[in-house]
Write a structure and sequence with these properties.
By secondary structure, this protein is an alpha/beta fold. The chain contains eight helices and nine strands. It has one domain (about 5-215): Aldolase class I (TIM Barrel, Alpha-Beta Barrel). α5 (about 150-165) links the parallel β7 (about 135) and β8. Bound molecules: D-xylitol-5-phosphate and zinc ion (ZN). The site of zinc ion has 6 residues, from β2. InterPro entries: Aldolase_TIM, Ribul_P_3_epim, Ribul_P_3_epim-like, RibuloseP-bd_barrel.
């Protein structure tokens, strides 16, 4: 399976965003990863549907929206309507994750669920047949530049095994502390979508994206 690279705009320079997106468009990256944070589910506040709407007007890259908010129902739908392509939320933040996935699909969008490092896959195994993407967090969500948690490769392998055994069709995304080295471990375990923030934006954008795409 070929690797999809998703540069995380959390590490981009907001006042140089247009240029950085142009550079990403010319690179091997297919997604833009947009982190939406509420200061409650995670201790940080970042981006929202207005930002996604403006981004949509600037680029045709797939907008991979990672929604880290409590009670995400309204935000997820607002971000979808603003032009997000893929809506990934944390299932423990809503009482009815199954319904929210159905709502996302009704809007003609792709739905993903994200697993915090402390959350077991077993808790939400019944969602796996209907999701388009499973995001295995390789750091605790909230900030860029954190250290990769190597133990999460076991969880990636578990999600891959479940996909193979049951003929599910989701992509397996990883997010947090991804570099060419940690990305390699994730790909070996079964991941095919690599989110990278600080690694990409601290190393000149094009070259790190190229390295990840070739893993
Ligand atoms: C963290 C965010 C990530 C973040 C990753 O909660 O979900 O997308 O941007 O940043 P790096 O790649 O620097 O760990
Ligand atoms: Zn993210």
């Amino acid at each position: 399976m070929s690797i999809i690279v998703a540069p995380s705009l959390l590490s981009a320079s907001l006042f140089d965003l247009k240029n950085q997106i142009t550079t990403i468009e010319k690179s091997a990256a297919e997604y833009l990863h947009v982190d939406i944070m509420d200061g409650h589910y995670v201790p940080n506040i970042n981006f929202g549907d207005k930002f996604v709407k403006e981004l949509r007007a600037q680029t045709d890259l797939v907008l991979d929206c990672h929604i880290m908010v409590e009670n995400p129902e309204q935000v997820v739908l607002d971000v979808a309507q603003a032009g997000g392509d893929l809506l990934t939320f944390h299932p423990e933040t809503t009482r009815h994750p199954y319904r929210l996935i159905e709502e996302i699909h009704k809007l003609g969008k792709k739905a993903g669920i994200a697993f915090d490092p402390a959350l077991s896959i077993a808790a939400y195994q019944d969602l796996l047949p209907i999701v388009d993407q499973v995001l295995v967090m390789t750091v605790s969500p909230g900030f860029g530049g954190q250290k990769f948690i190597e133990k999460m490769t076991t969880k990636i392998a578990q999600v891959e095994q479940l996909r193979r055994d049951n003929h599910y069709h989701y992509d397996i995304e990883v997010d947090g502390g991804i570099t060419d080295q940690t990305g390699r471990l994730c790909v070996a375990a079964g991941a095919n979508v690599l989110v990278a923030g600080s690694y990409v934006f601290k190393n000149g954008i094009t070259e790190p994206i190229e390295k990840l795409a070739q893993l």
